[in-house]
Specification:
The complex is a heterodimer of chains A (309) and B (536).
Chain A (H helix, E strand, L loop, with lengths): L6 H34 L16 H30 L6 E8 L2 E5 L5 E3 L2 E4 L4 E7 L4 E5 L4 E5 L5 E5 L5 E7 L12 E6 L1 H10 L10 H11 L25 E3 L5 E3 L2 H9 L23 H12 L5
Parallel strand pairs in A: 1-5, 4-10
Antiparallel strand pairs in A: 1-2, 2-3, 5-8, 6-7, 6-9, 9-10, 11-12
Helix pairs in contact in A: 1-2, 4-6
Chain B lengths: L16 H5 L4 H29 L10 H20 L2 H14 L8 H23 L17 H5 L3 H28 L12 H16 L1 H16 L12 H35 L6 H14 L15 H29 L8 H18 L1 H5 L1 H7 L3 H31 L1 E2 L2 H27 L14 H31 L1 E2 L42
Antiparallel strand pairs in B: 1-2
Helix pairs in contact in B: 2-3, 2-4, 2-5, 2-18, 3-5, 4-7, 4-8, 4-16, 5-7, 7-8, 7-9, 8-10, 8-11, 9-10, 10-12, 10-13, 10-16, 11-12, 13-16, 13-17, 16-17, 16-18, 17-18
The chains are: A alpha+beta (309), B mainly alpha (536).
């Protein structure tokens, strides 16, 4: 029950166990007495002898003072560990995080931008500087015991130092709309050699370079495109991408446009510029700066393959 | 001038829509409020069962993600604003407060019926803004309406806040009425320290209603100014700060939590002494702790923002302040349990509910500790642990007390007894179903399952499945319980004026009471809880 994923997480769990024990004690103490009284003094008849006790000053003082002392202790140990949970070391490795409906985007100092999953080195303190492009999200890694909202108005941060190589869940924990429950990801904690390999190549060991179509499909899923744009013609929040290329669309305001590479790029970067009639404005976040030109070209290549023939 | 009961006419007469809808009688208003809030309790409860049914298995069963989000939004909004906030004060409070202090009615009977009409208007506005104009998507923001999602995703946030604002007026009218009534309308001899504890709890929650509710109006004003005049308050695009909305929302909604629970605590404090045949233990400690909770409730809203990006110092201070609520709450629990000591405990259904309340409420209170603690809350925040925690306070606490109170006072309200066996079966079904629903939620919340998820990872399936099974039992229990109560209204055995030998004033008048409550203004010579051997 004690997480060994980070050193601070283990200490958070010790606080939690301390509180759980205290909860268990008071729960059992109160209810044991309650049930005992219920049964011991059960009514036997209308003439039961009952006491006339109206209270006890002594007891009132005792059961006021003891809880006060206990909650101070809980507050104190909790605040102490929390201080370490919230204070990143000066030399932490920093990663920029952007959240938008319904995907995570991570930007590393060697220039790589990756969606969906986060890659971090093992044994190194990592600080995430987070901001949202649209609504409030929240970055949560249960095993690390860290969570912080990601808001559009300012930067927030979390930090952790993962002790072991492994894979951990990322959840969005602030409700952000339709696919909130699919705004997931993984933290990949990489040992030093793997980390270096990943930084140099962008690939995990044994992972092959994806073809443009495969890379485009992966992006289409991990950036959350699929949540609103179906590949089977179903109308979701946005238009389906089935048979998209060369399709003639009527835009809001009556203008007609034939979908080509430039229209798709424009829609990815500035989604509100050319809205297809009948679809709501302001639903899709801009991916300008979130995707490299190569990413966008991969997505376009993938979209060209989605046809009903 | 005869004071014989020959002229006795129960308040339930005359019947007819006009005679009820235009009444100014507090008892009739209490009953109409009861029917209205139970209607929304039914709707909101069915939405909850829809949510749980969808979560039996991962992936989509019968509603898509948007549909799921709409269901929990409807559930939360209707439960909070239309059911549990008016809850006990507007129903049992309206019915009992004047009876308990020996008054003919509340201080402002016309404001009282106005409160009910305003409530109906507010309820209609809320429901219609949740549904929206024909053809538009139903509101899916959750009951917290956090900006910017609520503003970006729909136009519903202003109308729904308007609805909450109108409902707020209903709350304020009731709250003001109760405060003035308690100050000015007490019968001769009914001093502050002779008043029933239910009255003390109504007084405390009325203070919160009157002081916290205006913040809804301010929030509404800011939302409208932002929309109409483009002044940035909450919208980051205009230079505003969405966290300000969270602060304003919880500055109202956290004290509201105590509007919900304080009267429930009052109900329990009424049932315990009667069924233990003993004076309440620590009367003044219980009475003053209600006021203490009301006071502290205004200074703890920040614990909803522990991971919001709020400054670290604010988090530290709000954690400390939040722990302060634990103290008066603990004092109450200890005193309730102390009341049973050396008593003569009759475990009839109202008493089962009262004791069940204490049991469930200890879980509710104690699970608040790791949520008030900074280090542990970071992990538990916005997970199912929180969902389970507040359902233990709201359903395990407030609803259990409301249902217990309805059983206790049903013979007074309708002059009829329900079937005691079915009432007991109903209690145990509720008790088992409720715990089966929410204990698994504590477990999966601790394991990291976030709330408001339409779909979930396979590792959480066992707990979700158990919780969903429990919820069906939980839901079934209410049909049993309310079926029994409704049956009693028509077919139940006639109840005596005072079937429990209570000393409280509401039992010293016929069941159901006459329109004027008492034939003569009662004179009070002793406190309400003079049970015990001397009086026996």
């Amino acid at each position: 029950m004690i997480s060994d994923a980070t050193e601070v997480a283990a200490r958070v769990d010790l606080v939690q166990i301390f509180i759980f024990l205290m909860m268990a004690f008071w729960f059992i103490a109160c209810n044991a007495v309650l049930v005992y009284f219920m049964l011991r003094y059960r009514r036997k008849g209308p003439d039961d002898e009952v006491s006339d006790i109206k209270g006890s000053h002594m007891l009132e003082v005792v059961w006021t003072v003891i809880p006060i002392i206990l909650v101070f202790i809980i507050f104190y140990v909790g605040a102490n560990v929390w201080k370490d949970l919230r204070t990143p070391p000066e030399d932490a490795y920093e990663i920029s995080v952007t959240a938008q409906k319904w995907s995570w985007s991570f930007k590393y100092d060697h220039g790589a931008i990756k969606g969906g999953d986060l890659f971090v080195p093992q044994g190194v303190p990592v600080k995430l500087n987070m901001i949202s492009n649209d609504v409030i999200h929240s970055f949560f890694v249960p095993e690390f015991r860290v969570k912080e909202d990601v808001v559009p108005s300012m930067y927030t941060n979390v930090w952790f130092q993962a002790e072991h190589a492994g894979v951990y869940n990322i959840f969005c924990t602030e409700y952000c709309g339709k696919d909130h429950s699919h705004m997931l990801g993984k933290v990949h904690v990489l040992d030093p050699d793997t980390w270096e390999h990943w930084v140099n190549t962008g690939l995990m060991p044994g992972e092959k370079q994806l073809t443009p179509v495969e890379a485009g499909e992966a992006l289409f899923v991990e950036r959350g495109c699929k949540g609103c744009h179906s590949i089977d013609g179903t109308k979701l929040v946005g238009p389906s991408v089935l048979d998209l290329m060369g399709r003639e669309e009527i835009l809001e305001g009556g203008e007609r446009v034939t979908v080509d590479d430039n229209y798709i790029m424009d829609s990815i970067k500035y989604p509100d510029r050319q809205i297809v009639a009948g679809y709501p404005k302001g639903q899709m976040p801009s991916f300008d700066g979130q995707l490299t030109n190569e990413d966008i070209s991969n997505i376009i290549t993938y979209l060209k393959t989605i046809s009903s023939e | 001038m005869s004071h014989e009961n020959t002229e006795y006419r129960p308040y339930l007469e005359p019947k007819g829509f006009y005679a009820w809808f235009w009444t100014v009688d507090h008892k009739r208003i209490g009953l109409m409020y009861l029917y209205a809030i139970l209607f929304f309790f039914l709707l909101a409860g069915l939405c909850a069962l829809g949510v749980r049914a969808e979560l039996f298995y991962p992936k989509t069963q019968f509603v898509d993600h948007h549909g799921y989000n709409v269901l929990f939004t409807l559930h939360g909004t209707m439960m909070v604003f239309l059911f549990i906030v008016p809850g006990i004060p507007a129903t049992l409070g309206n019915f009992l407060l004047p009876l308990m202090i020996g008054a003919k009615d509340v201080a402002f009977p016309r404001l009282n019926i106005l409160s009910f009409w305003v409530y109906l208007l507010g309820a209609a506005v809320v429901v219609f803004s949740l549904i929206g104009p024909p053809g538009s998507a139903w509101l899916d923001t959750g009951w917290t309406f956090y900006t910017p999602y609520s503003i970006d995703s729909s136009t519903g946030v202003i109308p729904v806040t308007l609805g909450a604002f109108i409902l707020g007026f209903a709350s304020i009218l009731t709250g003001m009425n109760f405060i003035v009534t308690i100050h000015k309308m007490r019968a001769p001899g009914m001093t502050w320290h002779r008043m029933p504890l239910f009255v003390w709890s109504l007084y405390s929650s009325s203070l919160i209603q009157v002081l916290a509710t205006p913040v809804v109006a301010i929030t509404l004003g800011l939302l409208i100014m932002e929309r109409m005049l483009g002044i940035g308050f909450f919208d980051a695009g205009l230079g505003g700060d969405p966290i300000l909305f969270e602060n304003m929302f919880w500055f109202y909604s956290h004290p509201v939590v105590y509007i919900m629970i304080l009267p429930a605590m009052g109900v329990v404090a009424e049932i315990l002494p009667v069924f233990a045949k003993k004076p309440i233990f620590g009367y003044r400690a219980i009475a003053y702790s209600s006021l203490a909770i009301a006071l502290v409730s205004f200074f703890v809203w920040g614990h909803h923002l522990f991971v919001s990006g709020m400054s670290e110092w604010s988090r530290w201070i709000f954690s400390l302040l939040t722990f302060a609520v634990a103290i008066p709450t603990a004092i109450k629990v200890f005193n309730w349990i102390g009341t049973l000591y050396k008593g003569s405990v009759l475990l009839d259904s109202p008493m089962l509910y009262a004791c069940g309340f204490i049991f469930l409420f200890t879980i509710a209170g104690l699970t608040g500790l790791p949520l008030a603690t900074l280090a542990t809350d970071v992990h538990l925040h916005d997970t199912y642990f929180v969902v389970a925690h507040f359902h233990y306070t709201m359903q395990g606490g407030t609803v259990v007390a409301l249902v217990g109170g309805l059983h206790f006072w049903w013979p007074k309200m309708y002059g009829r007894m329900y079937n005691e066996t079915i009432a007991k079966v109903g209690f145990w079904t509720l008790f088992v179903g409720f715990n089966a629903t929410f204990i698994p939620q504590f477990v999966m919340g601790y394991q990291g399952m976030p709330r408001r998820y339409a779909d979930y990872l396979g590792e959480f399936h066992d707990m979700h499945f158990l919780s969903s099974v429990g919820s069906m039992v939980n839901g079934l229990a209410y049909f049993l319980i309310f079926g029994n109560l409704i049956w009693a209204v028509y077919k139940g055995k006639r109840a005596a004026a005072n079937p429990y030998n209570s000393l409280s004033l509401e039992w010293q008048t016929p069941s159901p009471p006459p329109l004027t409550n008492f034939d003569e203004v009662p004179t009070v010579t002793d406190w309400t809880y003079g049970y015990g051997s001397k009086q026996a």
